[in-house]
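User: Second chain of the day. Same drill as before.
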Amino acid sequence: MGKIHIEGMEFYAFHGHFAEERVVGNEFVIDLTIETNLMPAALSDQLDDAVNYQEVYNLVKEEMKVKSALLENIADRIINAIYIEFPDAISHVWVKISKLNPPLNGKIGKVSISMDR
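Assistant: Same format as last time:
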């Protein structure tokens, strides 16, 4: 077993509890860890035997296009999409979503949630 880490994925998206957030948008950063068996790819040196990072990124990108009120909803959708795309290859997924400069009436660099399954 091993872990794939895809870190610092940046998106401008339209998520938030407040209606203005879903109109104006904000910057988000996503970190993702996938637990999988790395040995088939390590032995074959073939992408077909690996969890393709580009496909994972594309799944995250598509989920970030769907407006949501809560980061928890986005994280759950991302995890579901990964398990659907790679049903036999994934044993665990962890995702962290950070919203930069959230509108919380104060100077706050970011808020983050993490979820795993």
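Strands lie at 2-13, 26-36, 90-100, 110-116.

User: Great, on to the next one.
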